[in-house]
């Protein structure tokens, strides 16, 4: 599989090592974007005057570029996760469900804190903890669990040869 397909494509399967490399690349791109943003904009406590804050008017173009770099890193992580889930025989939609559940839990916690509801805070924190634990379990599966050794509905295994199902001859993957 070509590097562009590993980093940006949603089809096919990748193994644990390729997934680790893609995640490292995505994380590096996101950290670079955040570091450049801090260098370009600076920390809020360093602004001593109105002129310093007015200098930020030129920052939207820089922030748009950095947002694009961060978005590329996020897409690489999503694409790698999709292909790794395919290697495990799961659809890529699992990631979207996890993202939605985590987003809902974070907003529920924030809303409970905002409205100062102690029962709501406890419930939201329990929800956030449960969703976070499930997310960590999925991430552990992605990094630790070996993929299916046979071809599945998402393609041949990333190693090259697809093992035959019982009663079928072995065939080389394309």
Report on the architecture of this protein.
By secondary structure, the chain is mainly alpha-helical. The chain has two domains: 13-90; 92-146. The protein is 66% helix and 2% strand. It has helices at residues 3-8, 16-41, 50-54, 59-87, 93-114, 118-144; strands at residues 161-162, 171-172. It has a two-stranded antiparallel ribbon. The protein is flat, with a radius of gyration of 21 Å. The protein starts with a helix and ends with a strand.
Topology diagram in text:
Layout: H1 3-8, H2 16-41, H3 50-54, H4 59-87, H5 93-114, H6 118-144, E1 161-162, E2 171-172
Antiparallel strand pairs: 1-2
- Overall outline: flat
Radius of gyration: 21 Å
Number of domains: 2
Order of secondary-structure elements:
HHHHHHEE
Structural class of the helix and strand makeup?
Answer: mainly alpha
> What is the end-to-end distance?
10 Å
Number of strand segments: 2
Helix % is: 55-70%
**Alpha plus pi helix count:** 6
How do the strands of the widest beta sheet line up side by side? 1-2
Overall mean pLDDT stands at 76
Low-confidence stretches: 161-174
Beta-strand content estimate: under 5%
Question: Major sheet: size, sense and barrel closure?
Answer: 2 strands, antiparallel
Structure summarized in a few sentences:
This protein is mainly alpha-helical and 174 residues long. Helix content is 66%, strand content 2%.
Keywords:
2 domains, flat, two-stranded antiparallel sheet, mainly alpha, 174 residues, 6 helices, single chain
